[in-house]
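Sequence, please.
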């Protein structure tokens, strides 16, 4: 029997489908082979580029900077827990020695060591700092007047005048004397001796405020002094072992650091009339530095603190 018209149509469609399928398979195979060959020609060593080719210098520099920054951040986390903040203490042309001409007074300017003057070391350090910053002469009479007025100010406003910690001492300065002057030191008041042996006299940087720095190194003390301004430190007085103190010496004490010469720190120590320019070994002084922890008998528990001009 001859195929019907429908059969012819069906057979034609079947042949067409088979032909298209075969062509499609061939096309896919050609595309696959071409693609594989192309990738081998254009990208012959893609997997090995990072292993065999040296990284660009810029990439290596960025990597090294990142590592140094991470290390620096990790170290700083252990060095300084100050809520006040640690200022930059970088010093260019670090001098071999420095002496800042801060006027001196003992905490008993007229030689009267009563209950008020026995406790007046904090006030006296602030008086010396103020008269240094304002470039004003400081006589025993003026110093006595300033100490008495500051004690009266504390009693009136705070109810007491004894034993302030570093931050309270800064607050007392700001409340009693007001903002710092625009310029801290005149050229004749700071003497620096450079590492080359040359001598230069220069004023300190413009002052903005007093700041408290905590948990610092011995070198940082010298760095701050090299910037041209005095530093105030609280200390365990008996650990200072000053031979001019009336034995056994004060439990808690404050003094002004005015320079250094090698491993000696030059101070204005108000705890004795012999305190002008008195020197301490930097190690002994550093070990004695403690902020007031709340009770004089617990002074060894106080962390290291210093008051600087930022």
């Amino acid at each position: 029997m001859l195929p019907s018209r429908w059969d012819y149509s069906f057979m034609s469609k079947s042949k067409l489908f088979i032909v298209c399928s075969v062509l499609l398979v061939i096309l896919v195979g050609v595309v696959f082979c071409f693609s594989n060959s192309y990738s081998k020609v254009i990208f012959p060593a893609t997997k090995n580029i990072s292993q065999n080719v040296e990284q660009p210098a810029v990439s290596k520099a960025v990597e090294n900077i990142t590592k140094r920054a991470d290390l620096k951040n990790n170290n700083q986390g252990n060095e300084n827990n100050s809520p006040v903040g640690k200022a930059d203490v970088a010093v260019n042309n670090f001098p071999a020695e420095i002496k800042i001409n801060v006027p001196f007074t003992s905490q008993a300017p007229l030689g009267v060591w009563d209950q008020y003057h026995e406790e007046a070391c904090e006030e006296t350090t602030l008086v010396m700092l103020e008269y240094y910053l304002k470039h004003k002469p400081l006589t025993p009479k003026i110093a006595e007047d300033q100490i008495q007025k500051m004690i009266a100010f504390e009693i009136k406003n705070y109810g007491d005048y004894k034993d302030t910690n570093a931050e309270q001492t800064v607050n007392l300065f700001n409340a009693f004397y007001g903002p710092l002057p625009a310029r801290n030191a005149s050229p004749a008041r700071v003497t620096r001796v450079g590492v080359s042996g040359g001598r230069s006299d220069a004023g300190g940087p413009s002052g903005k405020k007093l700041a408290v720095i905590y948990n610092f190194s011995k070198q940082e003390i010298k760095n701050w002094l090299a910037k041209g301004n005095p530093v105030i430190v609280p200390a365990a007085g008996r650990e200072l072992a000053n031979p001019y103190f009336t034995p056994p010496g004060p439990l808690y004490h404050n003094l002004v650091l005015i320079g250094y010469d090698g491993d000696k720190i030059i101070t204005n120590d108000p705890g004795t009339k012999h305190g002008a320019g008195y020197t301490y070994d930097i190690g002994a002084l550093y070990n004695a530095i403690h902020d007031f922890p709340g009770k004089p008998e617990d002074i060894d528990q106080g962390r290291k603190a210093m008051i600087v001009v930022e």
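The mean pLDDT is 77.
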